[in-house]
Design a protein that fits this description.
Helix content: 40-55%
Number of helices: 8
Strand content: 15-25%
Order of helices and strands: HEEEHEHEHEEHHEHEH
Mean pLDDT: 85
Oligomer: single chain
Number of strands: 9
């Protein structure tokens, strides 16, 4: 009986297994291209904050995303980040924290709204250096809502205004829409039958200056490749 001395592919299998586990745990993947390594991050379902969502709900957990973004920014193995968005919104503090992390990255970043980028998904969509939305994509802009007991005093309403100011400041700082126009969309009473706010779609989001470009996956990737090439050329100077 002879011993099989052929080289095994365990290293490749382990690498593939790690990639599959990364996709399961984080909704992320890593692809090496001629212009560098691209990390893809999905932000889907409800943005989960300090309280866990009900069992079975699709969530994006901020305690997973924040360290992931920090390690990505520091990694020599990462050259660009593609963010795929299909979220109904969720926790304001968690959403803004993720958005600020993305906006503060030096690495090339591109976001793509697929399906929906609603509520706190709006700041997340505009946080990247360039943003895209598909023609069928939708975004809901509305005033702040809080669940649970709300005390009807002037301090509570002032608190709501301060939170809305933070959202407005972030969106207008990271997009081309004016604060006046964004607040008008947020406080619109003639759009939704049982709510205050506005629902806008792909072309409208670009025309209003919230999103930079109308396009799909290939357009977003082409933009990210361009950013990566420009960053490489900048470092080589």
């Amino acid at each position: 009986m002879t011993e099989d001395t052929r080289p095994t592919e365990s290293g490749g299998d382990e690498e593939q297994s790690d990639l599959q586990q990364q996709i399961v745990d984080m909704g992320s993947s890593t692809v090496k291209t001629k212009d560098g390594t691209i990390h893809t991050l999905t932000i889907v379902g409800t943005i989960e904050g300090h309280q866990e969502e009900r069992s079975g709900a699709k969530t994006t957990k901020y305690e997973h995303i924040l360290p992931f973004l920090a390690s990505l920014e520091e990694s020599d193995e990462a050259d660009g980040l593609l963010i795929l968005l299909n979220t109904m919104g969720g926790d304001i503090e968690a959403g803004l924290a993720i958005a600020e992390m993305i906006a503060g990255m030096h690495k090339p970043t591109v976001s793509l709204v697929l399906g929906g980028g609603h509520s706190i998904g709006v700041p997340l969509a505009v946080a990247a250096k360039e943003s895209f939305i598909v023609p069928s994509g939708a975004m809901t802009i509305h005033p702040v809502r809080l669940n649970g007991l709300v005390i009807g005093v002037s301090q509570t309403f002032h608190y709501f205004e301060r939170i809305q100011d933070r959202i407005c400041d972030f969106v207008t700082r990271n997009s081309r829409i004016s604060r006046e126009d964004f607040e008008h969309l947020m406080l619109n009473t003639g759009e939704m039958a049982a709510d205050v706010g506005t629902v806008i779609y792909g072309t409208e989001a670009v025309e209003m200056g919230i999103i930079d470009h109308l396009g799909g996956l290939s357009d977003a990737l082409e933009c990210l490749h361009r950013q990566m090439r420009e960053e490489r050329e900048r470092r080589e100077l």
